[in-house]
Amino acid sequence: MSKILVVDDFALARESVAKLLEYEGFTALRAKDGREGLAMVNNAAPDLVLLDLVMPGMDGVGLLKALRRDPQWKDLPVIVLTGATDDEKLISRAWELKVQDLIPKASFGFDDLLARVKQHLPQMAESRGA
Question: What distances in angstroms separate CA 83 from CA 2, 27, 65, one per listed residue?
Fold first, then answer.
């Protein structure tokens, strides 16, 4: 099954999303910030990243920049799951760095999250004939 990396500094959010993914049969990897997330990408090669933008140290934009600079990871699907939806500059920067989707933490539901994850996983998209 697909490996999904959840990068979020808020442990409760990170664990809740990871547990949901595991319940649905995915392998969920966890990272508490961008640096840890980048190391996990390089070591575990996830199929998709769920990424918070606002984190201490290397934030989500920093991780996105690092991924997009690396030929191996430039096309890795990333879905932003963030509470910073009122920060237009930050959100614009994420879109510029080619995220696949953006989900506001304040209003997401687990069914919606799972649908979007499945939509953007490469092998699931291929199996739908995309």
Answer: 26, 24, 20
pLDDT in tens, the chain (130 residues): 899 999 999 999 999 999 999 999 999 999 999 999 999 999 999 999 999 999 999 999 999 999 999 999 999 999 999 888 778 898 999 999 999 999 998 888 899 999 999 999 976 555 444 4
Has residue 27 been placed in a domain?
yes
The domain in which residue 42 lies consists of 3-125
Into how many domains does the chain fold? Answer: 1
As beta bridge partners, residue 27 has: 3
d(CA 64, CA 89): 15
- pTM score: 0.92
Task: From residue 75, give the alpha-carbon distance in Å to each of 19, 97, 100, 107.
Answer: 26, 10, 10, 27
| DSSP count for the chain of H helices, then E strands | 6, 5
